[in-house]
Structure formats: C-alpha cells, structure tokens
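Subgroup meeting minutes
Present: P.N., E.W., G.H.
Scribe: E.W.

1. P.N. recapped why we're keeping a running log of single-chain structure predictions: easier to compare across weeks, and new members can see raw inputs and outputs side by side.
2. G.H. added today's entry (385 aa).
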Amino acid sequence: MWQVSITTCAAREEAAARLLEEAFHLSAAVYHDARTGKRTATVYPSRLGAPPPQARAGLSRALRRLFPGRFGVLIQKLPRQNWAESWKRHFKPVEIGGALLIKPGWSRRRARPGQRVVRLDPGLSFGTGHHATTFFCLEQLAACRRPGAGQSFLDIGAGSGILAIAAAKLGYSPVQAFDFDPEAVRAGRANARRNRVGNRVRPRRLDLTRLPARSRKRYDVICANLTADLLAGQAEKIRARLKPGGQLIVAGILRAEFCQICDKFETLGLTLAKNGVNKEWHSGRFECPGCWNGYAVKRCGEKVGRRFILADGKEHRLLASTAMRSKKKRCMTKTLNLIHEAIRNTKHAFRQSQQRAAKAQKHRYERRKVKEIIRLNDWSTELEF
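Output recorded in log:
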C-alpha cells in the first residue's frame, strides 16, 4: 500500500483532493493542521502505476497547471500489516469505576465483581466510551443510580446506543432513546440485541427540534450528548421532560460554550451539581428542584465551585451547589417563620375576639340585671301607695 499526499493552503485544498481522486480513483482524506494552517489531501492506493519519482513529477506538473504557488508532494510506501487486526489495538476496554465495563467483542477482559458488561464494537455511530463526553455521561449515569429505586432514563442523541444499554444494565427502567440519524438507530438496535437488552432498549428515529414543547412523560435521568447550539435552542423541551428532583447530564460542549449552556439551564430552574473538563470538552450534570431523599442530597453535596479560564480569556466562577442549597434552605426557613408568625397572629386575634365577645356578653347580662332591679323597685313602690 502507498500513501500519496499533497500539502497546500486552504484555498487550494479542494482542487488538490479532486486531482488525487481523478488520478487514483479513490476518495481523498483531508487533514487540517491548526497550528500551521496547512491542508493535506491524502489517498492510499494499492499501487502507483509508475515508479515513485515519475509519479511525483507527474503530480507536480499537474499541480503547476492548476495553480501557481508552493505545494508539497509526498509519496511513500507503507509497511505491510494486517489492517483488519491492527486498528483493534486502539480500542481497549473502558472501566467506569466498579459499575461498568465497556469492551469490544474481541476483548477477553473479565469484569470485576459487581461490574456490568457492555459489549460494543466501533462502527459508524458515535459512542464507544473512549471519548471524554461519552465517558462523563457513563460516569454520571452510574453515580445517579439509586439501588432498589425505580428510575426512568431518556437518551437524546443515542448514537451507538451505549448510554441506553448501560442504563438498562444498571437497572434503569423504563429506558427510552432516540436519534435523528437512521444509521445510528439501526446500530443502536443491533447493539441492544447483542447485549441482550433488545426488549428493553429500542431506539427510535425522532427529531428533537420537531418534538412538542410539553410532554406528559417525564424522566428521572436525561442524557443529552449534543452540540451546544442544539442544547441551547432546545433547552426548554429538554427541561419539560425532566421530573422534579431529576438529573440532566449534558455533554458534547466546547469549553468556550459551556457558560452559555450553564446560564441557559439555570434560567430554567436547574442547578449545576457536577462538571467535568477534558481538553477542549466541558460537560455537566444539572439538578431539577424537587423533593430529594437523603441519598440524593448526599450525592448532590459535591463541591463544584471552581474557577475555569475559558478560551475567550475571561474568568468564570461556576455557582456551587452547596451555596444554592444553603440559599434554598434560608428561603425555606424564612417562609416557615412567616407561616408560624401568621399562625401566632391569627391565634392572638382569635383570643382577643373571644375576650371582647365575653366582655360584651357580660356587659349585656349586667344591664339586664340592673333593669330588672329597677323594674321590681318601681312595682314595690306602687304597692305601698
């Protein structure tokens, strides 16, 4: 196998890729070097059809006819190897604490006691557990699980179905998932059947932008591994599908865009409880206000009030969940004090009204007695005369 590459600028990238495709009848892959700004178009033919010097000279002449300027042509032979097996070295098992083990079908890795196994082979659909955003979602999915409690789960943008399958393995029920890409829906259903949860996980093809704004069905945990613009534009619809006291896990957000998403969901009444930063990716878990049990409150007590320097150079402080809870506690205490004060005032007013009524009744009784005495005195006087 040979590698044939042309390095040029962005304006000539398309012409270089088209030249390689016409010369070798193969689709060209284009790589962009963000540091230098150069673009490299590459094809991998099985044979050149001419010695390497002649092939290089022919490409150079064709490029000069297409456009003047500087460019680079690289032709090199790649070592022979089993490509069907060599790419598998890059997909190793992923452990999510002691709760989950994500591994490809060819791995012989054994799960530790208590770990649920999700078998997933890399394919066209996004989601193998290796990416930072998928890893954060799996980690929070395991952290939000309350043993013995019934919890429902919704996966928006299911991809390969890894999150829905993991949720079913962890005990979430019911589990719903949907994606707009039909290829992702087919891959998700096949992966669910491969993991023996096909009767519980059946991804559907739905468009989030066309869903109704309100929904009767709500979920305890929602995962939305989407782009920032889609999250910001559809935040109200996602919020409408979250139960009181539920958890919303968002991922797929660049660090420069996270504050916008955070502000959007906080205006909808959610509170940031956990966040994760990995290279350029920023993910978070939000809580919906409601009645939490002791376990959930304890889980939500993680400190997240840290500082982050984002790509725009500005410093942002994320609001700590502990501060929000203390603020809610103060508001609740103030409300209870007002209620108790109103009850005391009502009781005091009632007692005063009772006392006034008793005094009025006593006064009326005394007046009747006086009138009776005067009437009797007048009658006795008349008898004497």
